[in-house]
């Protein structure tokens, strides 16, 4: 089951209760729009419920998303459906199949989440918290410390000076800020960021259930982080040109660009990494007994880069080892309880034939610190060698394994061991029921698992992109990171839709929220419109959001008052709107009202539509997975195996009833004895 990409803690949903504490220091200076947000869907109760449900899943983080999609999508339906396999033949529930399906599904899916998490936790505990930080970021932090005046008199002083250096690196990488600029003059208070981050690190989490239910707790870790991210988005939007991803920060030097497609990092992730790295660095520095940071940082950087790379490899290796072992756990029976009822029935019917002849078939199957430091030198991103490139491709994101590892695990470590184990049981079943080997369970696995893998890797991705492209066309708001090139042929476009590595990806709720809100002025709104127009959005449709109801206070009604009849021109452009604004004819009252609508989660129709599309997509995805992968594929396998042996009336299929049925009626063969005919049939290549 595919786990959808989630940017947790990038924004939290809004809630009216939050108004009670919005003047708190942590949330000061924010607009009334708080993020992914509560969505007003009017009378559409079902859609409103779906939006709230998927927002609750997202607030629960990766664990909640994984659990909902994997359990409801494949594990539970496949386990439940297994009890009816062969019931029409035996008259009994197939509890053996239930047990095997349950063990297989509930062990395989969670292992790709829990095993890497366990490895990462052990590595971070015994090797240092920096093992939870990517190699590139460790390198960047080391460079920043080396080039900064870091105070190491105590841990708090170190954290403050380190955080200041990292944050300044990120802010001075905004294309609207020069090194000579004063950040305060640009509206950026670094000390405020540091205070909030330290407060967040010392705060308690409000807990999984309160977070899922979006219960505001102003002094909680999650709500403080929300305020920090909102502040960052506003600062970046005010100090960058164009329309970049406002949730991302850049702290890498350009000289590393050759070794990575994208050196930007989610600002929320950067905050987490700063905390882990600073705790680990200061503890290691104290243990070292050194007095000069410069003498220590180079060795620490190499050691931790090597440790992180080793952790990435260990996450893949341990997960692979466990997944190879899973088939031995769930195959509690020597034969497959899903195919046994049909095979046994066929064997009983076949025994009635006097010319039955059995076959005997045999199967012939077949010092740590120094090491980490040396390894760190090899994976150093600045080397630009094949080793460092390979290390970059294997970089895990938190407990999410890298995509190359995922491909390896889902094929070589899921499919292959299952096939090996199924081959053994097919041989055992054939010995039990007589006759040559029938690869029934093996064929079941090939049909079920290859289809499942292709669906997860490509179909689910393609469905999301296709729906987002449809939504973009309908609303006029671009909901994907890129668009399809009109110059590409239909096959190239199709591949860009289903390819997980394509630049055309669905924008998550966090990205949509950052793009469509937190507007300080109309210039930022115009930049959003220009970005949308450049990506082939439709400004006319965008401005007409809410025009059907035309109710007072809708985006369209305010746009009409602000810009006049120009909004009703189907070819309206950003230049037309800018000319109106520059003409001085626009009432400031309506400008503020227009900004208020876009900055309010309950009123912003653009964000509302994006949330609806997102909820609909995830619901449809879950429905497809549940219906097709959960119930459909197991049923197809059951039907294929049954039709192989039995007819609709449960009589034996003729091709298995008489071994002579495939022998051509040549006169020269008429006098052959049954066993001689069967020998000739084997010569022809027929196994029955």
From TrEMBL:
Keywords tagged on the record: Membrane, Transmembrane, Transmembrane helix
Record carries keyword Transmembrane: yes
TM ranges: 309-326
Name of the protein this chain belongs to: Transmembrane protein
Species of origin: Candidatus Galligastranaerophilus intestinavium
